[in-house]
């Protein structure tokens, strides 16, 4: 795979990106949004240490097929050793890796993942630097961050990552403490003006129009959508709500790629949120098996899976874990940081 995501981001047009979403931005959903003008997809966040340790985790967390590109695999990691080894394993099957520096959930902060990494610029610098030095271009290494309360800290953080060799950054223009309040466009613009790296702007893209506004106002190179594209996978094609052919495509994709019922159903729940009247929605959301869902869709919209639909053959991923290429020595800087971290606990 020699797709160059940086070149795509540098094209003088708005690049449209599907966000990493735990449980949701899996192969089936990526296949769907790629049919509606989505240029780049992220996997859900995958725990790097489980990925290197457990075959079951690898099988559960990652699958791909020949059409699934450009693809960025996002990891949660808190040391260089895990990030590098996980990257090594997955690199033959994707176009880049990303480190999650934005997840604000309590479990992630407690475990030292996600937004907790915003407090550890030296570690994130090392994660980026080590991957950049070991996996050749055009493979990308990037970080997805949230804003710091102090914009100077955000700018410093981004400049450190730029210097370490990051290919691009994604900025969710909220601080880890912010929930549903509007994004901080002014601070996003300040970040934009402070680094030369391609930037993906993220936050509140709910329609093609809002994507275009964010692209123009932020002056970033690309826009990323999470909740918006979940509710309407066709939004980058300009649809204001999920079109019926998108539901048809979902049925076709999920009848070819093995999909657990909960994933199959949840996505339909999101997609129908804006188009089903409330009473039908409550009924639909309570359905417990695929046959009942298919019957509902047939009765309500006359839609059923198309038996002659295109097949989406999975790539058989072979992960060579017989020797972990990088040993713990590589994480020397990180160990030092962990010591600091423990030190902080005791001095608090
Ligand atoms: C269901 C869900 C799962 C998410 N999972 C991830 C994830 O795995 N990694 C990540 O960096 N962000 C994750 N996010 C955050 C989104 O990628 C995005 O930054 C955030 O939702 C703001 O974008 P939006 O306003 O378009 O939703 C998730 C968000 C949602 C709604």
> Which molecules other than protein and nucleic acid are bound?
flavin mononucleotide
Query: Rg from C-alpha positions?
Result: 20 Å
Provide the CATH superfamily of the largest domain. Aldolase class I
Question: Strand pairing plus helix content: what structural class?
Answer: alpha/beta
> Please, how many helices?
16
Description:
This protein is α/β, with parallel strands linked by helices. It folds into two domains: 9-225 and 315-341, Alpha-Beta Barrel (TIM Barrel); 244-256 and 258-301. The protein has 16 helices and nine strands. It has helices at 5-10, 27-34, 48-53, 55-61, 80-90, 106-111, 121-134, 151-164, 185-194, 208-218, 227-231, 244-256, 261-272, 278-285, 290-301, 332-347; strands spanning 15-18, 40-42, 46-47, 71-76, 96-101, 140-146, 168-172, 199-202, 222-225. Strands 1-2-4-5-6-7-8-9 form an eight-stranded parallel barrel, surrounded by five helices. Helix 5 runs parallel beside helix 7 and helix 7 packs parallel to helix 8 (151-164). The protein is globular. The structure holds flavin mononucleotide. Flavin mononucleotide binds next to helix 11. One of its GO terms (molecular function) is tRNA-dihydrouridine20b synthase activity. Residues 18-275 form the DUS-like FMN-binding domain. This is tRNA-dihydrouridine(20a/20b) synthase [NAD(P)+]. Its cofactor is FMN. It holds the Pfam family Dus.
What brief labels describe this structure?
binds flavin mononucleotide, globular, NADP, 8-stranded parallel beta barrel, disordered C terminus, TIM Barrel, tRNA-dihydrouridine(20a/20b) synthase [NAD(P)+], 16 helices, 2 domains, tRNA-dihydrouridine20b synthase activity, alpha/beta, 348 residues
